Model the fold of this input.
Amino acid sequence: MAWLGKAMKFLGGVLLVVLAILVANTLRLPDLPAADGAKFPPIKDLDAAAKRLSAAIQIPTISYGFANPPGGNRFPDLHKLIEESFPLVHKHLKREIVAESSLLYTWEGSDKSLPPILLSGHQDVVPIEPGTEQKWTHPPFSGQIADGFIWGRGTLDNKQQVMATLEGVERLIAEGYKPKRTVLLAFGHDEEIGGPLGAHAIADLLSERKVRALFSLDEGQAILEGVVPGASRPIAQIGLSEKGFMTLQLKAVAPGGHSSMPPPHTAVGKLGHAIAQLEANQMPASLAGPGGDAMRSAAPALPFATRMVMANTWLFGQVIIKQLSGAPSTNALIRTTTAPTIIKGGVKENVLPSEATAIVNFRLAPGDSIAAVKAHVGRVIANPDVTVTEGGSHPPAEATPTADKSNPGFALISEAIRGVEPSALITPGLVMAGTDSKHYTRVSGATFYFCPARFGPDDLKRPHATDERISVANYGEIISFYLNLIRISTS
Ligand SMILES: [Zn+2]
Done:
């Protein structure tokens, strides 16, 4: 039995080597940065600022879809409120109304040779889902300030960003601050339907003027507290890219007739099978993109065992992918997602439908192309009776590099975050939904997505849903963030 002893020794040796590699890789991860930086001084007159945000929430600038005017024609009211709320902004900055309702402000810098910064946000909000109005603690367009929160549609998406940016500028002007670098503020009015009018037109205008911003900053990522399991610190993700978007229509055809003598598969059956196949055969997942980067960068704040797993994707890659695929929020980080959202077919219970249609919405991960997803869909459905046509699409944004030394955007935004939350672990991130920045990327040297709204586990479900709210204290931090970001980026 000597061979057995030798084999065991060999196996033990191999295990030791593997263990050594695992630990070495784990120790090579960057340390958690110190959490004792200086905070920016608190914002003065915060209650008055909260009231101004509340007033903006009370104007229901709802975008329903392409059939209705964006914002329900309420933008003149919002613009009037903004003008009255920020007199210094309107005295010192040039304001242009673009595409009827979008706002572009220019705060001229003293050094024209410097590229400007572009801060954006959007004025429109999504509707309240019919039947959920009564579920709100305070009515969705009341802008109620209660229990330390400002409540209502737009407090997280995205009037807090528009109003806080303007608060920041108003206060800087009041202090006598004069930027060296020009500051551009772009507030679109139809972001919730893709920004085809507002942000698109603003980008056209800036492009005509040959503007190329040093960096642009839009909505999309936030400060996560207790959201990443086991994380010992708040995690501030700065989004570096946003996912793409594609809608496909599937149409199944079959002979019509009486339902008493059906063929083996009706149009409804064929369509149902095609959808089931698409759900069962998802686009492949990968840890190589910005979603994987976001997970890996959070590792220093995680318990040792999790850190070891994240530091050794060469061994645990498939385990990690399986784990992340298990929850919708993490699954969307690592792959192009597939969501059948609308289905139609048939007119009467005893009539065989001659056709049935479905809409399937895809969100493309950076690295996947529109053509590749279409090819995948064709292969998976593989049925000549089911045709696929494209409804609309835009490709995923190319990721902004964090380590691009020629662009200090990431470092400047990080510095402003640390002034608000010194203990935050700052990581790159991936924006799952679409933003107006898909239009602004062409006039910006680097695109970032971040606003320091604090999201706990309970808050992720609030945007676009019930009980959207922001704490007054957090709103003060958001104002402080934009005020100081403008100062450090333009002085
Ligand atoms: Zn938004």
Summary: Residues 274 and 381 are 5 Å apart (CA to CA). The mean pLDDT is 93. The chain has 15 helices and 19 strands. The pocket of zinc ion is lined by residues 122, 157-158, 191, 219 (CB under 6 Å).
